[in-house]
Design brief:
Layout (H helix, E strand, L loop, with lengths): L13 H6 L8 H9 L2 H9 L9 H15 L2 H15 L3 E2 L2 E2 L3 H22 L5 H17 L11 H13 L7 H11 L12 H10 L2 H7 L5 H20 L2 H4 L11 H7 L1
Antiparallel strand pairs: 1-2
Helix pairs in contact: 2-6, 2-9, 4-5, 5-14, 6-7
Length: 267
């Protein structure tokens, strides 16, 4: 019998409990739109990726990276981080660098906040202690991807204050590039599916997005959209609660993720 190699976190850690919920994928569009609201992030994504032709690839890679670091053994986690750091080393342009600690922190913050918002909306509320633990545990992946330790807000309260400050600042401005890329997030071109197929996804993304950014992106949020979103907020948690673990979560508790070779090949 093969012995499972140790990962960075124990299986009962809140970082694993939250991130293994498949419903968190519904928050992926929210995280992407928040990232693109930073003009320097939007420029880097537009100029150094194939986002316009494969808009969901960035989200897919982020999910794979998170799974590798949070659920993989140490070798898998380190290989995933090295792969992303090598790619970031070449991403620079006029006024931005993917290695800029402030930009890295903002991207990391969108993932942490979107995970918390999506989990608490569609799975269940977390206690203040669990929210604090989740935030502190998520700092390790951020450090592995180049964020200096002293750059992080010290507590979940400080983190929430940082988010509020960013959303109220001039640092986030949804420009023309962000709007163009944002349309591909809410209405991706996937398997030639018609745009209306993604209306539910667009409504979920719009409902989860912070109000200031929703307005800047010009996303429709009338009475009908709000009613539909409220129905989802009531219905989805009930559906998640009765979904068998084999469909609800990935990986199943007690299983490590082995994606080291996958990241090595794709880096």
């Amino acid at each position: 019998m093969t012995r499972m190699r140790a990962g960075l976190f124990p299986d009962d850690a809140v970082i694993r409990r939250v991130n293994r919920e498949n419903v968190l994928m519904l928050g992926g569009g929210r995280a992407l739109l928040m990232q693109l609201a930073h003009p320097q992030v939007a420029a880097g994504v537009d100029e150094h990726s194939d986002f316009r032709t494969r808009p969901l690839y960035r989200l897919r890679r982020t999910i794979r990276l998170t799974m590798a670091i949070v659920f993989g053994d140490r070798e898998t986690a380190m290989a995933a981080a090295r792969s992303v750091n090598r790619a970031h080393a070449h991403v620079r342009g006029r006024g931005y660098s993917a290695l800029d600690p402030d930009l890295l922190l903002w991207v990391h913050a969108t993932l942490v906040d979107s995970a918390l918002v999506t989990y608490e909306t569609f799975v269940g509320r977390l206690s203040p202690a669990d929210r604090e633990d989740f935030y502190q545990q998520m700092r390790l992946p951020g450090e592995m991807l180049g964020i200096p330790r002293d750059t992080f807000p010290r507590s979940i309260g400080d983190f929430d204050a940082y988010l509020t400050r960013m959303l109220e600042s001039d640092e986030l401005q949804v420009g023309s590039v962000a709007r163009e890329l944002g349309r591909l997030v809410v209405r991706p071109r996937v398997l030639k599916l018609p745009g209306p197929f993604f209306i539910p996804l667009e409504l979920v993304t719009t409902g989860l997005l912070p109000a200031p950014l929703r307005e800047q992106y010009g996303l429709p949020w009338g009475r009908g959209q709000q009613k539909f979103f409220r129905l989802l907020v009531i219905a989805l948690p009930k559906l998640v609660a009765v979904t068998p673990p084999v469909l609800r979560v990935w990986p199943l508790p007690g299983r490590n993720v082995s994606l080291a070779a996958d990241f090595a090949l794709s880096s």
